[in-house]
């Protein structure tokens, strides 16, 4: 199957109290997809393809993210989630910011 990117979404999430990387990551994903509607999903399915959703989360401590919990935030497609160093931790208090980049690709059987 070949694929090509058709949608890029970006989001930011914040855990104000608790330094919870997973909570901030889930909020970043929600922020990224909150205003999206992907009518092309029906076309992808009709043409025998599938929607691939690749999520990259940036947080100060990538090992602190529950990748399966973040994956559950996305209701459609074949979802993969990875976390890498990024985001921001407040120098005062216990606030943490996560960033999300979501790439949606359409994959079709090779003709």
Features:
111 residues; alpha+beta; 60s Ribosomal Protein L30, Chain: A; five-stranded mixed β-sheet; 3 helices; 5 strands; elongated
Describe the overall structure.
This protein is of the alpha+beta class and 111 residues long. The chain has one domain (2-108): 2-Layer Sandwich (60s Ribosomal Protein L30, Chain: A), CATH 3.30.1330. The protein contains 3 helices and 5 strands, in the order βααβαβββ. The chain has helices spanning 21-33, 40-46, 67-71, and strands at 2-15, 50-59, 78-85, 88-89, 96-108. Strands 1, 2, 3, 4 and 5 form a 5-stranded mixed beta sheet that branches. The termini are close together.
* CATH architectural name: 2-Layer Sandwich
Average pLDDT rating:
93
**SS summary, helix count:** 3
Rg computed from alpha carbons, rounded to a whole number of angstroms? 15 Å
Domains (count): 1
The helix/strand order is EHHEHEEE
Number of strands: 5
* DSSP strand content: 35-45%
Uncertain segments: none
Query: Would you tell me which CATH topology applies?
Result: 60s Ribosomal Protein L30, Chain: A
Short synopsis of the structure:
With about 110 residues, the chain is of the alpha+beta class. The protein has helices at about 20-35, 40-45, 65-70, and strands at about 1-15, 50-60, 80-85, 90, 95-110.
Give the arrangement of secondary structure elements.
Blueprint: E1 2-15, H1 21-33, H2 40-46, E2 50-59, H3 67-71, E3 78-85, E4 88-89, E5 96-108
Parallel strand pairs: 2-3
Antiparallel strand pairs: 1-5, 2-5, 4-5
């Amino acid at each position: 199957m070949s694929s090509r990117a058709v949608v890029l979404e970006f989001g930011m999430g914040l855990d104000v109290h608790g330094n919870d990387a997973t909570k901030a990551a889930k909020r970043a994903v929600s922020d990224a997809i909150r205003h999206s509607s992907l009518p092309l999903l029906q076309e992808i399915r009709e043409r025998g393809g599938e929607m691939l959703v690749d999520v990259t989360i940036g947080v100060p401590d990538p090992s602190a993210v529950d990748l399966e919990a973040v994956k559950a935030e996305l209701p459609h497609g074949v979802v993969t989630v990875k976390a890498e160093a990024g985001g921001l931790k407040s120098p005062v208090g216990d606030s943490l910011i996560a960033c999300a980049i979501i790439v949606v690709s359409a994959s079709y059987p090779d003709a």
